[in-house]
Amino acid sequence: MTPEAFTQTLEQIRYELAKVIVGQEEVISHLLICLVARGHALIEGVPGLGKTLMIKSISQVLDLQFSRIQFTPDLMPADITGTLVLQEDLGRRQFSFQQGPIFAHLVLADEVNRATPKTQSALLEAMQEGTVTVARQTYSLPQPFYVFATENPIEMEGTYPLPEAQLDRFLLKILIDYPNDRQMIEVLSRTTSTYFAEFQRIADAQTLLDMNHLAREVPVAQAVYEYATEIVEASRPQQNKSWETVRRFVRYGSSPRGAQALITCAKIRALAQGRFHASREDIKQVALPTLRHRLLLNYEAQVEGITADQIIGKIIERLGV
Questions:
Q1: pLDDT, averaged across the chain
Q2: β-strand 131-134 against 146-151: which pairing, if any?
Q3: Residue ranges of the domains in the chain?
Q4: Rounded mean pLDDT of 259-267?
């Protein structure tokens, strides 16, 4: 695949998604970065903003096998991964593995924080290794494999916050906001009439693998590597380079995965804009969704209403151009 074909493919995908999704251009751009990077996404937004519709539409445009799992407190790990079933054939009894809904290219983990930690942990191996292990037998998942998980930021009663180890496995944390007035009118016009959108398939799983391979070849200057490293190191209160704001409000900063994610996403953003080199500006533009879930803030930050986005913004501002 050529860089020109890469950019054109992303534009065609955006065009098809716009048939159903009104606005949310930045959200869609971040989701496409995850798809090309073969990364997972944590999507946070209030109910009714079209999170499920957006993800399902992406699977249709890209011809990916789609699976939706509704996370609830009584959901068990076997309900996700699958289980062994005793079957009888010609008088012989034997166990056979029945695949769970996680065996798909794109898995929507809806309201992932409503399930217990035991059930949430069923995703860990799949997200990191692309495999599922049941009864000491390991099964490979379809490739590429993605988990797009959603969270409701309002109704937190009866939920189980994701542990830091699992949060770190998400490439991006994407926030979805309300549409503006013009977009809201367009939403009403489409959803309360006979409007029907028919998608054209733009790419497939192999296309995404080819795009990922091309993105890995994008060159990065030493100064850009150093810039990504400086941002990540500045987010850690234990580092000597950290300043008072970070030491005061942050318990733990970004892991090395954060720096890897910064570079990977910067490469894809550069290609999406028709450039075959990643820059410091690319790093800046992907810093928030890449790092906001990798900063663990302390109680003082919660009391004073300090967010991870504000901390990251201060870090970027402090490091300058």
A1: 89
A2: unpaired
A3: 3-75+102-206, 218-319
A4: 95
